Amino acid sequence: YTSFGMGGPADAVVFPSTAEQIKNLLAFAAQEGLPFMPLGNGTNLIAGDGGYRGVMVCLKRLNRLETVEDDGGIALKAEAGVTLADVMGRTIQDGLTGMEFCAGVPGSVGGAVRMNAGAYGREIKDVAAAVTFFTLQSEIVEQKRRELQFSYRRLAMPPDSIIVLAADFSLVRTRREEVRARVEEILARRRE
């Protein structure tokens, strides 16, 4: 389940597709005294040969992605398991600029938010409008950008928050061709 395809097995790997399923899973893990670890796309993750003694909570099936327009602008709402490649595809399709720096970055939204992924002078913190977390108390909490503490390749998780569930990105409408050209330019630079 990792991009490197190496390392030992976990005791269990589960694929919840809703926050309710995560809530039930983590309640069961707590009841049974089982440790757990969230796993996004498994990109650039090195698993130990001994595996993981507990439950890996793979977020790949949390994959809803939608564009929402309101008076304040345009938000791209993405669950943690959405790949950045899918985000790029949607921004091109909808003509949304602001996240082109993610072109070619492997991984998923949850991991990108958690590690404040970035390239070419931009980071997730520059476009994140809000992040939704799952807490130790089995609550779903949304925090606005002004409440979040990003630093270089890191988001300080709010107290009691244990899993990034989703993020809202504030983007700007433009022509599809402009977004596509910028994405292609970045991908060409990466290949070089």
Topology:
Layout: E1 10-14, H1 19-32, E2 36-39, E3 52-58, E4 65-70, E5 73-79, H2 84-94, E6 96-97, H3 109-114, E7 118-119, E8 122-123, E9 128-135, E10 140-144, E11 149-151, E12 154-156, E13 161-173, H4 176-191
Parallel strand pairs: 1-3, 2-3
Antiparallel strand pairs: 4-5, 5-13, 6-13, 7-8, 9-10, 9-13, 11-12
- Percentage of β-strand residues: 25-35%
Q: Regions with pLDDT < 50 over 5+ consecutive residues?
A: none
Task: Summarize the amount of helix as a percent range.
Answer: 10-25%
- Bulk shape: globular
Describe the structure.
This protein has 192 residues and is α+β, with helices and mostly antiparallel strands. The chain is built from four helices and 13 strands. The strands form four sheets. Strands 4, 5, 6, 9, 10 and 13 form a six-stranded antiparallel sheet that branches. A three-stranded parallel sheet has the order 1-3-2, covered by helices on one side. Strand 9 and strand 10 form a beta hairpin.
